[in-house]
């Protein structure tokens, strides 16, 4: 049953979406939304004002791991740039990546493969740190690099999850089918979504570059005759070696998600200390402080406007809602605001193949608005089971459709609070990245839904 809290949340989601469509920042609508939800639920103004701050704390706790690893990677990057080790590291790739097309798809394919094996978060840090300067030199702007990392990694890799199979396992369990059914029956949908969204995204990027709407940055210059210090060469060797060892360890010990990200972050810290000692000797203590300050300054600068936005959308999940406001403000059987809305929507509309696929796709996308693609796939699987039995369609394909829309939205391609890692590592605005991805992903979702109507 939906309550006033749910309707207020729906209202502010619409306000946020309209604000985004008008290309305006959404911090104020999100903060007002938090206050209004708390005020309606508690009838206490002082409590509602305090809830704004509490929700910020909850959002920060959710994001702190990403903030730290990105800040540390940027600190390491600044150290490598200062000693010109970055130029040494990227020079072997220059012969392969000649133009922005090859740069975009090379970055994307490498990201796809790493994300399949180790999930997108740690892969983002690795791919971004190594390929960003190469791609920029080849003529691909930083926003294009972020798009490639984002669409191939947080979109295609995470929504398919063929290797680790975390997503299809959750979906299949809720849908009452085998994991192989989710993968096999949804294969056409996975690739329809990927090819359509990535193809349109690159076309629009290329078009806007040609029209001068996107400025192509000047990449790093690598001179064949330039000489480098012995210390810089050692640094350029140990950094990729360190991350290569990480990849091996992830594979050997089955590290993924937060564990893999922690390994990358810890390795970056150790490498930063080693580089400072090798290159600055007696001044290493002061230099590492300088690099850490620069990296964390960048992290705070990028993440600070995202926290208030994330705070509002995290309220859509039961855990963060309870942590921010406390218990007793939602119905006892509530699964969280967004899940409740999805269930209510499914119960209010008559069933046929067209409506079933449309609802499955829409509900998946709605549950993804909290920035966590995995939070909605259990609901997507459950709905697929109900719809599939009612309308006699392939439950596996229908569940795959819900999995696709939930993860492409929530996994981090079109909501700014979900695509922070790619934006941060490429030093672009997450809001601008979301805007670049929005049209291609939405068009692809519609086309994928239409295809699903014919194959379920």
Automatic annotation (TrEMBL):
The chain crosses the membrane at residues 6-22, 34-57, 63-80, 101-119, 125-149, 156-176, 188-205, 234-254, 260-280, 292-315, 406-426, 438-455. Keywords: Membrane, Transmembrane, Transmembrane helix. It comes from the Bacteria. This is Transporter. It comes from Alkalithermobacter paradoxus.
């Amino acid at each position: 049953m939906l309550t006033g809290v749910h309707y207020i949340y729906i209202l502010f989601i619409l306000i946020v979406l309209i604000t985004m469509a008008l290309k305006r920042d959404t911090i104020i609508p999100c903060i007002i939304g938090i206050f209004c939800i708390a005020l309606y639920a508690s009838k206490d103004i002082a409590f509602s004002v305090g809830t704004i701050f509490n929700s910020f704390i909850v959002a920060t706790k959710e994001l702190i791991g990403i903030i730290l690893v990105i800040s540390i990677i940027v600190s390491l990057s600044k150290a490598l740039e200062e000693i010109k080790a970055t130029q040494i590291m990227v020079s072997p790739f220059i012969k392969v990546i000649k133009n922005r097309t090859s740069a975009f798809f090379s970055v994307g394919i490498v990201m796809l493969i790493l994300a399949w094996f180790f999930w997108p978060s740690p892969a983002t840090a690795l791919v971004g740190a190594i390929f960003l300067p190469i791609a920029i030199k080849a003529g691909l702007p930083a926003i294009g690099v972020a798009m490639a990392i984002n669409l191939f990694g947080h979109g295609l890799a995470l929504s398919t999850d063929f290797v680790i199979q975390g997503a299809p396992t959750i979906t299949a369990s809720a849908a009452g089918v085998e994991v192989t059914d989710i993968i096999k029956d949804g294969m056409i949908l996975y690739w329809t979504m990927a090819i359509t969204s990535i193809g349109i995204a690159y076309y629009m990027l290329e078009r806007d570059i040609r029209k001068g709407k996107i400025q192509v940055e000047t990449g790093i210059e690598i001179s064949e005759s330039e000489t480098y210090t012995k210390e810089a060469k050692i640094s350029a060797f140990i950094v990729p070696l360190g991350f290569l060892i990480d990849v091996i360890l992830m594979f050997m010990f089955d590290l993924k998600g937060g564990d893999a990200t922690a390994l990358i972050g810890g390795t970056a810290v150790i490498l930063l200390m080693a580089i400072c000692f090798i290159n600055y000797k007696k001044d290493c203590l002061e230099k590492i402080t300088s690099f850490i300050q620069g990296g964390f300054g960048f992290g705070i600068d990028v993440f600070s406007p995202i926290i208030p936005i994330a705070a509002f959308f995290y309220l859509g999940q039961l855990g963060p809602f309870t942590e921010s406001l406390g218990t007793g403000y939602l119905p006892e059987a509530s699964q969280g605001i967004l899940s409740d809305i999805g269930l209510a929507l499914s119960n209010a509309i008559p069933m046929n193949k067209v409506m079933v696929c449309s609802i499955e796709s829409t509900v998946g996308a709605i549950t993804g608005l909290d920035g966590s693609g995995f939070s909605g796939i259990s609901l997507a699987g459950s709905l697929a089971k109900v719809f599939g039995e009612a309308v006699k369609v392939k439950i596996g394909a229908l569940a795959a459709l819900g999995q696709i829309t939930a993860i492409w939205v929530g996994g981090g391609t079109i909501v700014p609070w979900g695509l922070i890692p790619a934006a941060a590592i490429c030093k672009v605005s997450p809001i601008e990245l979301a805007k670049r991805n929005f049209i291609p992903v939405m068009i692809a979702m519609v086309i994928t839904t239409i295809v699903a109507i014919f194959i379920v």
